[in-house]
Amino acid sequence: MALRKIHNTYYVYYRDVDGKLKTRSLKTTDATLARRLHDDYILQLQAKKGRAVIMRDFPELKPPPELPKTATGEHQRGGMKIADMLECALSKRVLGKTHLEVWKRFADRIGVKYADQVTPDIAQAYLQKYYSTGNGKTYNNQKSILNTIFRCCLVEAKLSESPFRPIVNKRVTHVDSHRNLTLAEFDKLIAAASLDVKVMAMLSRWTAQRLETCAGITPAMLDWDRKVIVVSPGKTRRFHKWVCCPIMPELEAFLNGLGINKFPPSVSIVKSCGYLNNRAFSVKFSRLLDKLGIHDTKDGKASFHSLRGTAITWFKEHGIKGEELRQITGHESDEVEDIYARDIASVSRIAKSFSE
């Protein structure tokens, strides 16, 4: 940078930030003032060049990504369509048939197109409109399923939380309790039942499993050498829970009498005996109980689920308790190796002890 006097006027010569040589008039003929203006200009230019170096070496940071937003009822760009959420959820976890049915009804009924349009108010109004009747269990179950699918899609839908999360579960009231069937009632039932009912009743009576689990037992699940059945219960299948049931002598004799060795290995035993579906069977079983005079009492409701209570009570009365009973009624671990290492051996001993 230099100071020059041209035609009695002082000029400053300098090289700018872009590297080009430039000239600027100081508009004065006073040497002292020109020197002071020159020094001030040097300071300004040095500061300007310093800022340029900083901007070059330390470029401005990009603004952080937008934080997830809560549902506002107004669709914002970048969200996700409700119609696409089920496929997204299925890519992240296993969902059951009930999940698919519940979500399809929700997508058809909710009345909005995008996930961020579903506010907690809208979500609660939906549950109240369609599931507010009854004892509260259906309301809570529907809420749980919908909340699960929303939680699977929070990132894609750009939401901070599911609109169903703030909704409080209803207090469950008027829950049916099931009484045990007596052994005399069970014998009466077996004598009058059709083949599919006999098979289902015998499976439940001697394995202590629920209706949907008994309906899914296939010949391939029966290990005759160790006298056990390893099965994934229908109610907890999505949690990868397993149970190991003993093949008791009474059940073994009954199944052999059916000629089970000739049944298709991968088809459920009851399907080979004329079984239709769970709902039709429940109606058929209830009508049979009424016909036989096996009714509800003050102790609880008489139903197919009563056989599970009968079986558990029988096992307890015959010395099977604690961990062994939990292995039969509902396993605690989802590790198959753990089942084969520990449970099958102990349950096998139970079955063989009753066969002696």
UniProtKB/TrEMBL annotation:
Keywords for the protein's UniProt record, in alphabetical order: DNA integration, DNA recombination
Keyword Aminoacyl-tRNA synthetase: no
A Gene Ontology biological process term: DNA integration
SUPFAM superfamilies: DNA breaking-rejoining enzymes
PROSITE patterns for this protein: TYR_RECOMBINASE (PS51898)
Chain ranges of the Tyr recombinase domain: 176-355
Top-rank lineage group of the source organism: Bacteria
Molecular function in Gene Ontology: DNA binding
Keyword Flavoprotein: no
Membership in a protein family: Belongs to the 'phage' integrase family.
Protein name as annotated: Phage integrase family protein
Species for this entry: Victivallis vadensis
